[in-house]
Amino acid sequence: MRVVCCYAPNHLRRGTVESLRGQAPHAEFVDVSSGPDAYFEAFRSLWLAQEDFLLVEHDLVLAPGTVDALEACGEPWCSCHIGHLFTTYKGEAYLQCNRWRREMMIAHPGVVDVPREDRFWGQLDGHLLKRMGGFKPHRHLDLPTLHLAPSIGSSLDHAGMKAWRDANTPEPVMHTYSVGVNLDSAVRPVVPISDGMEALGLASTLTVEVLLVSYNQSRYLQSAIDSVRAQSYSHWHLTVLDNGSTDPQVGRILLAAAADPRIRVQRFHPSAADRASVCGYAALFNYGAWHTESDLIAFLCDDDLYVPDRLARMVAVIEAGRDVAYGAQRLLDGDGQRLGVRATEGVLRDAHSRVDLNSVLLTRSSFTKAGGLPTAPSVWSNADARLWRRLHAEGYDFYPVPGAPTDAKRYRDDSVTARLAKRQVPW
């Protein structure tokens, strides 16, 4: 039986790849990102080949044993139960996870001849039902397949599904912001879809999530984003977390950035009470970490920069068996003039106030074990230093990246640090 996953780059999920890899090492991945016509044509080619096949969409996680159970089923057409956070699908046919026998293809060869003008996302199952004269699939309600779009979900009427989900899918930790969260963004890809099987997670390539916090810095924001795009290491994603910027130029920059499939923009609109009740940048970095899935996490402020080989050099340290890497940092003024360098100091067992947040790359597991950044409003000036103490308490040391600085930090007259020194609100 062929096992095929049709995917688009901005929806393929790590859980989908890993659950298929574990159950069907021969699974094929077909890129249909060019539009619904590509999806219809992929299905049509599978159908006309007249070979048993299982079709799995890019945002599903298959419970253990699903592929074997569907292959063993004697029905000519069968499908899984699909669980979701908000509802359980009650419809008779959804193509998220379906298996067809050769006899179906022989009996209904023309069902896939759908005119191009009638091809739309989400309509293929309707065309099949209509053209098969009322034939419906056998639904395996004992196979609770997990639907991961638009968010991590679980079936509400299968008690065992939640337990299985909790054991197999990392649960986001609730962030401290209470209002204004935009949940309409596209689901992030968890691996860059650019270089075939390796990019699909079928080889051990570490992915990096760069978390960039933005607030009313239109003068510098584009340069910060471009410094990530310029990285020589290609396996990165960028999540921009905007803290309610009112500068319209920031909005234009973020809109343009969101056109890049490697970049996700998440805009928040906190109230004055929200701003006063929490360390905003720490809360946003935590939110970004809990709602992404890359192997490694890096941080960047909207007025700072990465050097082009930053990620490549830092990943090399992590691949040597370390959990936390830090680099030297070039210091700039607001106009980009060099003020000096914060050098590395060897292996650090107390990085408190000695390493800047922008200069670190760490494993997701270490960040999770440390519990993320503290978010109390009293930690505006040193939330990163307090995270370093949390990491040290969990047994993690900081390992230096050899050579030149890995990033550049601007010291501005209106920075958070400067505002705090003047006893002004940091935002």
| CATH domain fold name of the largest domain | Spore Coat Polysaccharide Biosynthesis Protein SpsA, Chain A
Which term fits the overall shape? Answer: elongated
| Number of structural units classed as domains | 2
Give the name of the CATH superfamily of the largest domain. Spore Coat Polysaccharide Biosynthesis Protein SpsA, Chain A
Fraction in beta strands: 15-25%
How much helix is in the residues?
25-40%
Give the CATH architecture of the largest domain: Alpha-Beta Complex
Classified by CATH, the class of the largest domain is Alpha Beta
Compact overview of the structure:
This protein has 427 residues and is an alpha/beta fold.
Explain the overall architecture.
With 427 residues, the protein is of the alpha/beta class. The protein folds into two domains: 2-168, Spore Coat Polysaccharide Biosynthesis Protein SpsA, Chain A (Alpha-Beta Complex), CATH 3.90.550.40; 196-421, Spore Coat Polysaccharide Biosynthesis Protein SpsA, Chain A, CATH 3.90.550.10. The chain has 15 helices and 18 strands. The protein has helices spanning 14-23, 36-48, 66-72, 102-107, 124-131, 159-168, 196-202, 218-229, 248-257, 272-277, 280-290, 310-319, 364-370, 383-393, 416-421; strands spanning 2-7, 28-31, 53-57, 60-61, 77-83, 97-100, 138-147, 208-214, 236-242, 263-267, 296-301, 305-306, 324-326, 329-333, 338-342, 360-363, 399-400, 407-411. The strands form three sheets. A seven-stranded mixed sheet has the order 2-1-3-6-5-7-4, with helices on both faces. The chain has a seven-stranded mixed sheet with strand order 10-9-8-11-16-13-17, with helices on both faces. It has a four-stranded mixed sheet with strand order 12-18-14-15. α9 (248-257) links the parallel β9 (236-242) and β10. The longest helix has 13 residues, at 36-48.
